[in-house]
Structure formats: C-alpha cells, structure tokens
Specification:
The protein is α/β, with parallel strands linked by helices and about 180 residues long. The chain is built from 6 helices and 8 strands; from the N terminus they run βααββαβααββαββ. The protein has a single domain, classed as Rossmann fold (3-Layer(aba) Sandwich). Strands 2-1-3-4-5-6 form a 6-stranded mixed sheet. Strands 7-8 form a two-stranded antiparallel ribbon.
Length: about 180
Amino acid sequence: MSTPTLAVWKFASCDGCQLTLLDCEDELLTLASQVRIATFLEASSAIVDGPYDVSLVEGSITTAADERRIKEIREQSRTLVTIGACATAGGIQALRNFADVDEFASVVYAKPEYIDTLATSTPAAAHVEVDYQLQGCPIDRRRRAGCRRASPSSAAGLGRDDSCEAGRDSAPHRDPDAGASCVDC
C-alpha cells in the first residue's frame, strides 16, 4: 500500500486556516510521517503533481481562473475537504454579493478595467462536489469534532447536516447510511 498524499490549496482568503494547520506543530509532524504532503505552499515551495488522496481547500472562489482551478483540483482529489468560512460559505469576500462589484472596483482600484473577478464570492461547493467541511474563521485546531460531511444544504452554508441521529455529543462514528464517517455529532 502506498503512502497517502495530502495537498493543501489556497484561494481567496487571509491564510488564517493554513496558519492554524501550521500551528498544530506536533500533530503536523506526526501527520507528515504518515502521509506525503504533496502540496502545501504555506509550508513549502515543493509541488508534487496529483492525483491526491486528500485535498484541503482554503478560500472562496472569486475569479474565472479560480473556477477552473477548483475543478482541476476536484478531478485530482479522491477526497476534498473545505476548511474555514471562506471555503465553506464564501467568507468576508461574500459581502460583495449584496452590491454591485463593478461599482466597488471603480471606487477601490485606480484601473478597474484590470480587475478580472466574478460578480460573487462563493464557496467551493458551489462549483464542485465537496466531501467534508471544517468550518470556522479560522478553523479551530482544538475542535475534536469540527469536520462534517457535506450535504446539499450544508455545502450551501444553510446549516448542519442533520441526517445522523447519533447526537451532537457522541464520538465520531461511522454513518452507514452516508457511507462516511460522521464527526459532526
């Protein structure tokens, strides 16, 4: 059996979630001995081509290039996990979704014609299938049960996935109906 590969990707965000991962220090060293960290530009300039067993995605999708890149990452990733408020709900950048982005650009930038952006800032799940979400801003490294299986409602930022009936205070367990580990309870 080969060593699993992990990739960490950045889109529009402040890097806080990746910094939180780096802050895991001892846990990250243990993880690094069990997986091959293929791509994690916050930690290393090394880039290993996919496919990847697990991809962690930080940040929202704000440009056409981001749309293309998240689709490429999804194609190369067996499991895709979004981390943080930007990746799971669009982040602070999503405030622009309630205004005219062209008007913002004309006020903020001296040459707004150079700005190539989408009209909205959206979570990765608006563009690709997401397997799990780890919410927070930034993610909380101490949360034992912070990752949840993505469902159509949770991926859209509409609330938690209530399909598991084991209860919020139970330990992470296998959800046979979903075919995935439930760690949201």
